[in-house]
Amino acid sequence: MTKRRRITLGNLLAWFFLILTTVISLFPMYWLFVNALTPIYSSPPLTPILWPAFKLDNIERLLTQGSPYYLRWMLNSVLIAIAVTAWHMVFDSMAGYAFAKRRFPGREVLFWMILSTLMIPPQVTLIPLYLITQNIGLLDTPLAVILPGTAAAFGIFLMRQYIQTLPSELIEAARIDGCSEPRIFFSIILPLCKPAVAALAIFSFVRVWNDFLWPLIAIIKPANYTLTVGIANMQGEFMTDYGILFAAAALAALPMIAFFLLFQKYFLEGVRMGAVKG
Amino acid sequence: MQRFMYKYGWSYAFVLPSMATFTIFVLFPVLWAFVISFQDYSIVRGGTWVEPWYDNYVRAFTQQRGVFVIAIRNTLYYSFFTVVANIFIGLALASLIQPLANWLRTFYRSAYYLPAVTSAIVIGMTWSYIFNAQWGFANWLIGLFGFPPVRWLSDPNLALSSVTLSAVLTMPATAVVLFSAAMGSVPREYYEAAELDGAGPVQRWWNITLPLIKSTTLYLTVLYTIASFEVFERIYVMAPSGVGNSTQTIVMQIYQNAFHQFKFGIASAQAFVLFVMVAVLAVIQFRGLRSDVEY
Fold first, then answer.
1. What CATH number is associated with residue B246?
2. ipTM of the predicted structure?
3. Which among B94, B100, B98, B90 has a CA at the least distance from the CA of B191?
4. What CATH number should be reported for the domain whose range is A63-272?
5. pLDDT above 70 for B292
């Protein structure tokens, strides 16, 4: 049933609204990159720059005079995000599988316990986490950020939802054939979960990469900062050299933007699976 | 015992790693934070109980001339406008892209989603430059219409509203994606039947779409409210000095009391006030979802 599109006032208003919101949505990022790619040595000019000069002066100055640690922060963030993501890919799938397909005493209680932690504001646990990491001597190390990052409920929830839709007969058949329990999980369940694991990996990576409050508390020496903590601190330090600040923010945003453009499909699919807030 | 382990051993082995980290890094810390909220805690001496037992909860609200009350008020102001804007803009955008071709829908969803993958710190920094009083884009833009420059982030009467405005203008990506998914799953026949009965597009939207996506609306409202109750990064980079107390928020207070002043007891009490606020919302959502229409 195709109807010929008539141009009505309503249609025009709708298009106007869609285009306006797209511009508003993308403009801040665009402006950030335009300024980062135009040499600025103190404050930007009074008439805003709207078209980039495509020069890398700011970025060069960021890496030479800005912060000696900038690339180090990026590396710290990558390592922490990979470690936490790897944990979730393996152990969330395992727990999700047990909660979805296996019967054992306490299953419901344990699952609801994990699910109810979604409701706890992360700010509640900051002080005890600080005391714990300090006591076991992990304060100011990457592990202080990695370990608490492994306790996130959404992955287990996502994997359970997904694995529930897989046919149980597969598992029964494998068991009758004498397949060991770990093998059932690793060679039958896990390969079938690729889309869910992909969504989980992407969201976990983004969440850890963007995390701020806990790393701000847990990391003390500038060399150990994560990228978000590092650039937030630079803001106070370079109040008069905005070229460096624009470059620092733009370069920090770049990996996630590239990541999103590459895995767009999984992102939008993942949100639909009910994975994250954003 | 042996039979029990043979039957259930692998199940427990599969959930053990996750349960261990949850116990150590969430459940135990929450309980400990609850204990600390009734204590005077110092890193050197440990905790001692306060007298009377609820003293930290009183001082949470009264210390520093009641700045926590201001922080709650500011948080509610920020949350109200952000949530209302997010839900209405999300609903409008999802409705408008619904009839479009597939590739256009994907394009718009991606355009709205892109800023959501960028960290709140980068977004906040960018907005703080847009709102810069000397050379910011916002002042240039309103200057085109003849308005005088505004001190967006340094005027105490304006700073909180500027931060709120920046959040309102960040498109509600999750809402657009979830609303579109919900609208896509409404059975076609409903619309066809309504069309045969002579209902126009607006009537169909109002009488069919809206009631059937009610649970998504509720879910998103709770999600966005909780997220804005917990606002921190945006404030931290856009108004680091606090501009008097005008941009104090709940989490800002918890952070400062805990890690600048080291008043762990009071900060924990304030964290549990936030917990209760979030829990009330979660209960409302749970109740609302239970009484939901099935189709």
1. 1.10.3720.10
2. 0.91
3. B98
4. 1.10.3720.10
5. no
